[in-house]
Amino acid sequence: MYKARSLTMALCSHAEVVRFFDGMELVEPGVVVPTVWHPELGDPVPGQDDGAVPGYAGVARKR
């Protein structure tokens, strides 16, 4: 899909994403796959399964 639109994508490791938050206070559960972030707050979306979600998500506070 990206190649067809002449876009490039560089995947980052977990450690590389965690470094983005250096100097900040990570909110629990930290840097994790998006589906781990408070799944109880979301409603199921028709047509989506519980497959793997590529990428990581995190929230942090500036100190």
UniProtKB/TrEMBL annotation:
Tell me one GO molecular function of this protein: methyltransferase activity
Query: Disordered: where is this region?
Result: 42-63
Tell me where on the tree of life, at the top rank, the source sits.
Bacteria
Q: Name one Pfam family in it.
A: Methyltransf_19
Species: Streptomyces jeddahensis
Q: What is this protein called?
A: S-adenosyl methyltransferase
> Which biological processes are named by the entry's GO terms?
methylation
Q: Which InterPro entries match?
A: SAM-dependent_MTases_sf, SAM_dep_MeTrfase_SAV2177_type
Q: Which UniProt keywords apply?
A: Methyltransferase, Transferase
- The keyword Methyltransferase belongs to this UniProt entry's keyword annotation: yes
